[in-house]
Amino acid sequence: MASSTILFRVSNTNTSTALSFPSTVSNAIPCRTFRLPISNRRRTFTVQSKIREIFMPALSSTMTEGKIVSWIKSEGDVLSKGESVVVVESDKADMDVETFYDGILAAIVVGEGETASVGAPIGILAESEAEIAEAKAKATAASSSSSSSPPAPPPAPAAAPVVVSSSPSPPSPPPPPASDGPRKIVATPHAKKLAKQHKIDINSVVGTGPFGRITPEDVEKKAGIAPKPKVVSAQVVAAAPTAAAKPAASPLPEIPGASVVPFTTMQAAVSKNMVESLSVPTFRVGYPVTTDALDKLYEKVKPKGVTMTALLAKAAAMTLVQHPVVNATCKDGKSFTYNSNINIAVAVAINGGLITPVLQDADKLDLYLLSQKWKELVEKARAKQLQPHEYNSGTFTLSNLGMFGVDRFDALLPPGQGAIMAVGASKPTVLADVDGFFSVKSKMLVNVTADHRIIYGADLAAFLQTFAKIVENPESLTL
Question: Disordered: where is this region (predicted)?
Fold first, then answer.
């Protein structure tokens, strides 16, 4: 009968003991007992208690630090794996942070309202009550190390003054050897003029310039005139250390009565993104769109919960299907990245900041489901409960200020996207047709800002023409 061999390896030894067991089990086969003489001494196994740190998590790809909004649990509370412990404000939303282990919240390192870098300890978790004292000591050490400011760097050594030496310049190259025959005199026009002014025979001057050319300095030397100091070179030498150590721009003068309010985490993230957007070469194209048919459709579907923003997002998504380059991105400055999904990010103003919830696969959702999804996203955004994939997965952004009566505006391109559309208000406009007859129609002006590395003027013009056709014939939006 075939048998299977099982190897048991005992830790801290180099001995492996092999046992052979029959591969099948039968009641008819008597069982034999094997005793393994592994060691004559008894082995004791000790399980050490664990003290774990609760770290500040990275709740988004752009998050570098987080702010503690509130602690759900207090010191001494017993925690279970998967239970929410603390609410953290990221750069876009407030999110509950769960614990991955069972234990006791022994100490809170970062209190409510304070910030901590991603990966920094914000709390200490003890496995049992016996380790609480040790955990508190560890928390005290962690908080003291984080609160203590690093030593100030030593002051930079003062720049040594530039000494302009009055020593003579390096010796000039020797003049070419004189020949027995007549030599050709080569002199600069200025040198000839100086020789004439000082009544110097130009033939008697030895040139020190290239190939024996007579320079103005040679004529002045022959006339016994002291050479003038090279002011320009001195200025260059003096300006070199200034350029190397360019002082920081002087701060703006303070206005009496003004107060300084630091950015919130969200406002700091918006500021960082807007500065990054300035490094992308962008251009803008505007296009007027007639909205009479869209306005009629909106009045029809408005009782069903459909908003104008949802209509515009749906129209933009359907347009991007026909113009995928406008849905593309340029991440490395060397290639196109064509996105297979059309995710429309829509700018929403919330208390203390700006966020762009994303309608994922907007081209595949019908208008009513899209409107319902948009309503849920807005509610979560204003409650600061959006998940990272609900605000950082956009491929095209829509910003609508028409509801505030804004005629037109330009939007800054968000980092990582190829284009953003700015929609103004729809207003009655007097138009003249080809026959000279006047009529009044509602028009809105749409401006698109695009990354010129991947999207060109013709691409954007074709995109806007298609968008206008869909808006002016909006029946397809409800299909």
Answer: 141-184
